[in-house]
Amino acid sequence: MIQQEQNLFKYPKFQDLIIHEDDNLIVINKPPFIPSLDAREGGEVNILRLAKKYTPDAQVCHRLDKDTSGILLIAKNPETYRLMSIEFEKRRVDKVYHAIIAGTHVFENLVVDLPILNQGNKNVTIDRYNGKPSETIFNSIRYFKHYTLVECKPITGRMHQIRIHLATQHAAIVGDTMYRGKPVYLSQIKKRGYTLSKDQEEQPIMKRFALHSKSVRFTLNGQEFSFEADYPKDFGTLLKQLEKFDS
Question: Which residues of the chain have pLDDT under 50?
Fold first, then answer.
């Protein structure tokens, strides 16, 4: 069944994902449902593999979760990869994500600095004694009746950092079942005039969690760079439906 689903999913052309390219760097708008790097079991299409077909020395400079869309930086040579690794390590790369969360939450420069412990096998937890320092700043951008569009600025770069930090605020990302986030169905927000035939099962508006890497700003070789990535279709559709039926 999984293999069948993968066959149905159409992988994009790498060239179509590129926002910016120069001699050293490629910036892409990563689609959802494609991992950034090789999974341990191998075999799955991923961004690194697509990038290496495009330019052989490609290295992904940071990682986005498989379901997360948006800005991803790819070095075209070892020296650029080394320099970008230093920028990330020194926390000099400004990253901004957008998330749609359940409930109305007024976040005004809310700083969440709860330590995160990576337990392995993609499991992380908040652990004040053994966790690594982790910090995220949250600001609400847009309010709906039952949901909020939030800007998320991770200062550190821990696995699942934005997702688990939001969950600690009782503000789980829509569709993020790992952290008790629930998907949004049209029937929930469109109270009137919604019908479904008997043998039809309603699908969520988004079939993943609603997290998008929106923009990035950094300096490389003395030059300042700033990039922004448009929302993918599913994220944009959910926002439009909320504007229409949940405002």
Answer: 1-8
